[in-house]
Amino acid sequence: MNNYVPEDFNMSILDVMLEAGAIQFWIAIAIGMLMIGLLVMILESSNPKIEKIKKYLGESIEEIFGEDK
Q: How far apart are CA 49 and CA 56, in angstroms?
């Protein structure tokens, strides 16, 4: 199968990516991954306030899904 490219097509790959929204997609993916990493880093710390949050999250998960066996 041959791809059809018009003769007057003169956009660069970057222009096509900008027009299609691909760059915004990859920026959103990168920011999401950084936020997940930050959340993991915060939850792994031994800060007393974070310990309370971890306890609350653990209790909430047990309430929703039941206790681990």
A: 11
* Of 63, 61, 57, the residue nearest 40 (C-alpha): 57
Q: Which one of 13-27, 29-43, 50-64 scores highest in mean pLDDT? A: 29-43
Residue 32 has pLDDT above 90, yes or no: yes
48, 55 Cβ separation under 8 angstroms: no
DSSP character for 5? -
**Do residues 43 and 54 make contact, with C-beta atoms less than 8 angstroms apart?**
yes
Residue count of the chain, please give it: 69
For residue 60, which amino acid is it? S
For 13-25, what is each residue's pLDDT tens digit? 778 888 888 888 9
Residues 42, 50 contacting (CB under 8 angstroms): yes
